[in-house]
Design a protein that fits this description.
This protein is mainly α. It has 2 domains: 57 residues; 38 residues. 78% of the residues lie in helices and 0% in strands. It contains 4 helices and no strands. The N and C termini lie far apart (70 Å).
Length: 96
């Protein structure tokens, strides 16, 4: 094992205290911080893209068969609230 000389020790000590070294460490820290932010931004962009794709899904309306099923399931017009809820559920099932 090599031992460092007093002169080498002095030079290494001066290097550790140098402003260049400190600036290099600050630059590396800034770089890592920017890379972390970039990684987070990429992740968020992927999530937003997936959400957008879901929102852009083509709307599917009720077919004549769907309407007839609802009409036969709720023959009494006084229960229109049930018809509206059933229609809403049917549309939600078709579009999710």
């Amino acid at each position: 094992m090599l031992e460092e000389t007093p002169e080498e020790r002095e030079v290494f000590s001066a290097m550790e205290q140098s402003s260049v070294r400190k600036e290099t460490i600050r630059s590396i820290d800034k770089y890592l911080s920017v890379m972390e932010e970039l990684s987070l931004a990429r992740f968020q962009i992927r999530q937003l893209t997936e959400r957008l794709v879901k929102l852009e899904k083509t709307w599917v309306g009720l077919s004549e068969q769907d309407i007839n099923e609802l009409k036969h399931n709720f023959p009494d017009i006084y229960y229109w609230v049930d018809v509206v809820r059933a229609t809403e559920k049917k549309l939600k099932d078709k579009n999710t």
